[in-house]
Design a protein that fits this description.
six-stranded mixed beta sheet, globular, binds adenosine-5'-triphosphate, binds magnesium ion
């Protein structure tokens, strides 16, 4: 299919005897925002890790641009156009905001104008000279995003970027993610904040204990007994 950017096929990941992802399979098209939701420990971050290359799936395929990349290390996947933000922002705390973005920009060999454009877009221009460790939570999340954008991703994996943001900051973040998608970047957005997700996604995937429980519009997910059971901790059969 020409509109396919990413496809997971039967992805499995286990740590020792603990199966964390079991037969996870979905596709993402360019410019699409797909939400990834589920209770704590359901495997959301692990899914991101398996796509970005921090971890390798034990079985199944991670197909990007028609090629199985499951054996590729993270830096090669970054070169192909996969990058991510982290649940706890990964920034160099002793370096300035500008230096953080410049380091990331080397991968895609961006010039200073392009770095400035990313700082403007993420509203970090005013604090470009500040050390990253002195930033607010919102600014650190934006910097983590700016750093990922500086690699010129085709697929951006965003792990709980809304956590800790106030309503106004969430609004700005939602607009920014929609703008990136409008430019053709595909996004997988892991999020517990469902209102935020509802604003930016047409489709979500619900994980429960590593299995896909639902795929479709967020509003329809809450009508699925298995999804409700996963979130309130009751057995699905009950
Ligand atoms: N490197 C690892 N080694 C062992 N177990 C791990 C590792 N990474 C994750 N796990 C386990 O895998 C399960 C899924 O973790 P994961 O971080 O993917 O969940 P999550 O859905 O992102 O949860 P949260 O909403 O709390 O961030 C958890 O039980 C976790 O303890
Ligand atoms: Mg997580």
């Amino acid at each position: 299919m020409s509109s396919e950017l990413l496809r997971l096929v039967g992805v499995r990941k286990q740590f020792g005897a603990h199966v964390v992802l079991n037969d996870v399979a979905f596709q993402v098209a360019p410019g699409e925002i797909v939400g990834l939701v589920g209770p704590n420990g359901s495997g959301k971050t692990t899914t991101i890790n398996v796509i970005s290359g921090l971890l390798q799936a034990d079985a199944g395929q991670v197909v990007f641009l028609g090629r199985d990349i499951n054996r590729l290390p993270m830096f090669q996947r970054a070169r192909l156009g996969i990058n991510r933000t982290f649940q706890v922002p990964k920034v160099f705390r002793d370096m300035t905001v500008l230096e953080n973005v410049e380091v990331a920009a080397r991968t895609a060999q961006l010039g200073e104008d392009q770095v400035q454009e990313i700082l403007r877009e993420t509203e970090l221009q005013q604090v470009a000279g500040r050390v990253a460790g002195s930033l607010t939570v919102n600014q650190q999340k934006l910097l983590d995003l700016a750093r990922a954008l500086a690699t010129r991703p085709r697929l951006l994996l965003v792990d709980e970027i809304g956590a800790g943001l106030n309503p106004a900051e969430l609004g700005v973040m939602a607009e920014l993610l929609l703008k990136l998608a409008g430019r053709g970047i595909a996004l997988i957005v892991v999020e517990h904040l469902l209102d935020f997700l509802n604003r930016i996604t047409e489709r979500v995937i619900v994980l429960g204990a590593g299995r896909m429980l639902f795929e479709g519009p967020l509003q329809a997910a809450s009508r699925e007994p298995e999804v409700v059971a996963a979130f309130i901790g009751a057995p699905a059969e009950s």
